[in-house]
Amino acid sequence: MGIPKSDKLIRLVVDFGDEDIRWVVTNIKQHIGDLDECNLVLKGLCFPFITNLKPVKMMGVESTAMIMPGEIERGITLTVNAKPGIKLL
After folding, report:
1. CA 35/CA 2 separation, integer angstroms
2. pTM across the whole model
3. How is 33-49 classified by DSSP, letter by letter?
4. How many domains does the chain have?
5. What's the CATH number where 39 sits?
6. What is the pLDDT of residues 35-88, one digit of tens each?
7. 2, 8, 48, 84: which has the fewest C-beta neighbours closer than 10 Å?
8. CB 46 within 8 A of CB 79
9. Beta-strand (E) ranges in the chain?
10. C-alpha span between 8 and 55 (Å, rounded)
11. Contact predicate 45/38, CB 8 Å
């Protein structure tokens, strides 16, 4: 979902399991393309997130976690070969 008045931010709906569904605002849209392209690229993939942060507002929209990008070059590389809930050190 796009953020009004922003060319960089999108709002993701992320399912962390055990009925923990959160809104996450991120600036990765600028690295992928338009909103439809972001939906195609990101839907169904698993990414690392930080979930123990205080909620913050970005352009008036609350974000309750932070996605952890790995490498951003002509798109985005953010895959993790781990079971959900694993702790990253």
Report:
1. 7
2. 0.69
3. -SHHHHHHHHTT----E
4. 1
5. 2.40.50.140
6. 788 778 777 777 778 888 899 998 888 999 988 766 555 555 555 555 665 554
7. 84
8. yes
9. 10-15, 21-26, 49-50, 56-58, 61-63, 66-67
10. 19
11. no
